[in-house]
Amino acid sequence: MRVATAVGAAVVARLPRLGAALLPRLARLACVVAGGLLLYASFPTRNWWWAAVPAAALLGWVLTRAATTAIGGLGYGFVFGLVFYLPLLPWVGSLVGPVPWVVLAMLCAAFPAAFSLFAVVVRGLPGWPLWFAVLWAAQEWAKSTFPFGGFPWGVVAYGQTHGPFLPLAQLGGSTLLSVAVMLIGFSGTAIALEIAAWWHGPGGQRTAEPDAAVDPPGHTDSAPPAVVLPGICICLVLLASVIVWPQVRHAGTGSGGEPPVTIAVVQGNVPRLGLGFNDQRRAVLDNHVRETLRLAEDVRAGTAPQPQFVIWPEDSSDIDPLVNTDAALEISQAAVTVGAPILIGSVLAVPGSPPDDPRFTNTMIVWNPSTGPADRHDKQIVQPFGEYLPMRSFFRHLSGYADRAGNMVPGAGNGVVHIAGVPLGVATCWEVIFDRAPRKAVLDGAQLLAVPANNATFNQTMSEQQLAFARLRAVEHDRYVVVAGTTGISAVIAPDGAELVSTDFFQPAYLDIAVRLKTRLTPATRWAPVLQWVLLVVAGAVVLVGMRHNGWFARPVRLRSTAGDEASSAGTPPRDPPPGQGPSDPPPAEGGDRTPPPGGGEDSPLPEGGRRPSRHSGRHRGAT
Known about the structure:
- There is one protein chain.
- The chain is of the alpha/beta class.
- It has helices at residues 2-41, 52-63, 70-88, 90-96, 98-122, 128-143, 169-200, 228-250, 283-301, 325-338, 392-395, 436-443, 460-477, 523-549, 561-569; strands at 260-267, 309-311, 342-349, 360-368, 372-378, 416-419, 422-426, 448-453, 481-485, 491-493, 499-502, 509-516.
- The chain is 44% helix and 11% strand.
- A 6-stranded mixed sheet has the order 5-4-3-2-1-12. Strands 6-7-8-9-10-11 form a 6-stranded mixed sheet.
- It has 2 domains: 20-198 and 225-250 and 531-550; 259-389 and 403-517, Nitrilase/N-carbamoyl-D-aminoacid amidohydrolase (4-Layer Sandwich).
- A hairpin with a 5-residue loop joins β10 (491-493) and β11.
């Protein structure tokens, strides 16, 4: 009893210290949670584009705290990413259960976590908001590339399709747009921190606080707030948006001298949603033929214009029309009746694949009324864990859904088919979220872009997010984009990102509209990959500089003045002492005293765990 009383008294005595240590951490944790939710709100279906800016600001505030170590930054970044991706990707779990959804969100959250770790490394450098934005671009590139070809879902730029910064996509694609938005948020944090620190701590009298920002050596709090560089960054982003906007707006509907063509999009719907939507033989094909025949009737009645060609969605023919005569006859009948070629989607067997391991391609075929199949596009970026399963033998032991994944192989080609004399770029469903697919088609002559999609296995939220990707591609490449979905949302998007017409979800429908063929190549089409590689090189360089700045590389210890005298007597001039260090002062400790190494090291102020404050703790003035 006496021991228990003593233990209880000790615990009670330590509660104030525990609270003092936890409260700042809880405040930082609340900030990253709020930041992740705000970034999610910038995406469809909320479309609060502006929310991405305070999301970046909150994350930047947490990562510039002196008490946030590199390992702490890793944890805060992971929480930020998890809170962002979990509500962004619920459609993954709507059919296959919560485990794949949570696992995918955790894998995606690892990339903001890595960003945050490196951000702590470089936060002591002058101009940290710019370096943070560059590092963010690097993590988005990494997530869009690894593993299994990457997963670009969640790139910040895709949440800006309803905002004023969208024209920047025409200059540098999704990469520049993401950098610009994050740069505004980080720069806003830098300005707020500088002004607040200057206001509350004149004359250098401010005491060290757990949530103070990191200072470079040699500054004084009496100096005016360093807001020049972050202010310039914000002004440059706004100025670039204003300059590019007239060009983007001029590219919109009804403008320009390019030749118009009338196109039709058919959304046939499916008999039921879910992974088994394709089980009923010919049901999906019949639906699309039926809606095409309704379009033909309206054309004959004069209530719809005659289309030059018709676009069906991905998987619109649920059986292979190249080996099934009945399917081929039904498609030919629809093409003859409507009086135009049809771009159809089907899954085709790869010739020569073994019977015990059949391979398939996800193919879009141009079907002419009189001659049948012509040009084709085999999907080149196939979806892992859906259209094919990497490491199938391993994952088969983890989930019964493993054997339901397809066995598709990527195709070849440039993504361009010719239909009714028009060079049409095709990015089939999943391909539209990857920068390289539509860019390659446009560079190889595509004057119009099509995104045939099959979202019957998912829900409306996923379709709305995919539509945002198509809007960005329209602005990025100055092309009309035609989205054709089996269940929706089908739409036609102008080069300025405006949605001209669209269908409802889960409803059979068709769209019939005139669009313009475009030939101009935008700066993003030509140079966005170069910008991406430049940013990657800069990100790598700034991390190395940050590590050197923090003393994470071994440095040779400078000789004392006596050693210098000996060197002079031997004919070698003595080395100068470091700035601010007298000849008799001891040399700086190897390893520095600024940002702690990733392994941890001493924590910051005493309320955060007993760390002795460094000489340069306090406000960070590295924004200039």
